[in-house]
Automatic annotation (TrEMBL):
Native source organism of the sequence: Oncorhynchus kisutch (Coho salmon)
Annotated protein name in UniProt: Rab GDP dissociation inhibitor
Keyword Acetylation among record annotations: yes
Main function: GDP-dissociation inhibitor preventing the GDP to GTP exchange of most Rab proteins. By keeping these small GTPases in their inactive GDP-bound form regulates intracellular membrane trafficking. Negatively regulates protein transport to the cilium and ciliogenesis through the inhibition of RAB8A.
GO terms assigned for molecular function: GTPase activator activity; Rab GDP-dissociation inhibitor activity
Coiled-coil segments on the chain, per record: none
The encoding gene: GDI2
InterPro entries linked to this entry: FAD/NAD-bd_sf, GDP_dissociation_inhibitor, RabGDI
Length: 457
């Protein structure tokens, strides 16, 4: 490893693999290393089932009723892709879609007062939904029409609503929408985790609802997509892209030291050898002294022999439990997938509930989902430490951008069930490392030139 690289990437999470792939395409000489023997890092899909038993130190072997172990692929961090979201755009631009197959998630639901309801997002669904009374249905329908037509470049569509000054609370009041409608709009459509958004500029929420609606319009059943064989396929797809353009991958490599000279990274030491580099991108686990813990996520993985009740027996869905429904500060998310996605044995389902930890008894915090999943064959409680780059709390403020050291640290995965915040982090790291904006439009214009040589590989 006595070569010099433009970029060394540590960790094979989705963020790191996307950046590795894009930078390889841009002509950077990339070395990608991971201490693990598998792709995905903390966002890996664990297969076969026997490996999941080992990971959680469960006694014995999986029972025969759970089918063949190799039929299982269990995500450690459950997330879906918004059909019209940023990650899908990245997949299309880079043509990583050649290596993946997706299925539409069959339903999107919201929990209210002990019952599950389909999330209404079209004018027709709003009028038919049992979530609201007859008069509120019409008010919500008018609200959806307003949001769909809202254009900051056309004052006629704004109806006096200033996108940057009017709060979302004021916009709800304008349409006389009650607390229940505010709850499922903010948490099940705009996908906010808390109610902090209510007093922020309404344009952010309008754009989030538009993203949900546009994603739903692509396929009809829900706004979400999921890759066959699990989320672990995503980082592997971008790793393959990087390899096609000259990127070098080394798994199962212990990282002994990040080598610095004059306050700047110059290489990475592994097994007594130093690979030199100009820049370093890594996940927080490789550089713990330069990140601060700001929260914790609790997840429970449930393996079932039935779908979640009151969802129409769909093979996959998302259920959002708004914070106010269970007297919490943060929402609870439930994702369900099944054998239809090649991640479980025939007739089996995987439901994963997650939320931000709020007490000293995280397991108890997810008890509210027990009525949703009921007959559980097997359950693991998984605690994921959440390390984010909250530099304002860091004792070394000059690490904020990473530019002076040329070390760029990714964020870990939050409790949300989509990849929009992950993509925001990818774009932020790209802009700091490359010194230029991550421009989707520019990438669209040049993708034919960039990918023409590898089109048939």
């Amino acid at each position: 490893m006595d070569e010099e690289y433009d970029v060394i990437v540590l960790g094979t999470g989705l963020t790191e693999c996307i950046l590795s792939g894009i930078m390889s395409v841009k002509g950077k000489k990339v070395l990608h290393m991971d201490r693990n023997s598998y792709y995905g890092a903390e966002s890996a899909s664990i297969t076969p089932l026997e490996d999941l038993y080992k990971r959680f130190s469960l006694p014995g072997k999986p029972p025969e009723s759970m089918g063949r172990g190799r039929d299982w692929s269990v995500d450690l961090i459950p997330k879906f892709l918004m059909a019209n979201g940023q990650l899908v755009r990245m997949l299309l631009i880079t043509q990583v879609t050649r290596y993946l197959d997706f299925k539409v998630i069959e339903g999107s639901f919201v929990y209210k007062k002990g019952a599950i309801y389909k999330v209404p997002v079209t004018e027709t669904e709003a009028l038919a939904s049992s979530l609201m009374g007859i008069f509120e249905k019409r008010r919500f329908r008018n609200f959806l029409i307003f949001v769909a037509n809202y254009d900051t470049k056309d004052p006629k569509t704004m109806d006096g609503v200033d996108p940057n000054k009017s709060s979302m609370r004021a916009l709800y009041k304008k349409f006389s929408l009650g607390q229940d409608v505010m709850d499922f709009t903010g948490h099940a459509l705009a996908l906010y985790r808390t109610d902090d958004y209510l007093d922020q500029p309404c344009i952010n929420t309008i754009n989030r609802i538009k993203l949900y609606s546009e994603s739903l319009a692509r396929y009809g059943k829900s706004p979400y997509l999921y890759p066959l064989y699990g989320l672990g396929e995503l980082p592997q797809g971008f790793a393959r892209l990087s390899a096609i353009y000259g990127g070098t991958y080394m798994l199962n490599k212990p990282i002994e030291e990040i080598v610095m000279e004059n306050g700047k990274v110059v290489g990475v030491k592994s097994e007594g050898e130093i690979a030199r580099c100009k820049q370093l991108i890594c996940d927080p686990s490789y550089i713990m002294d330069r990140v601060s813990k700001v929260g914790q996520v609790v997840r429970i993985i449930c393996v079932m022999s039935h779908p979640i009740k009151n969802t129409g027996d769909v093979n996959s869905c998302q259920i959002i439990i708004p914070q106010i429904q269970v007297n919490r500060k943060h929402d609870i998310y439930v994702c369900m997938i099944s054998s239809a996605h090649n991640v479980a044995a025939q007739g089996k389902y995987i439901a994963i509930a997650s939320s931000v930890v709020e007490t000293n008894d995280p397991e108890k915090e997810l008890n509210q989902v027990s009525e949703l999943v009921l007959i559980v064959m097997l359950a693991f409680i998984l605690f994921i430490k959440l390390f984010l780059n909250t530099w304002s709390k860091c004792i070394f403020p000059f690490y904020a951008s990473g530019i002076s050291m040329q070390i760029f640290i990714s964020r870990t995965y939050d409790a949300t069930t989509h990849f929009e915040t992950t993509c925001d982090d990818i774009k932020d790291i790209y802009e700091r490392a490359m010194g230029t904006e991550f421009d989707f439009a520019e990438m669209e214009r040049t993708k034919n030139d960039i990918f023409g040589d590898a089109g048939d590989q």
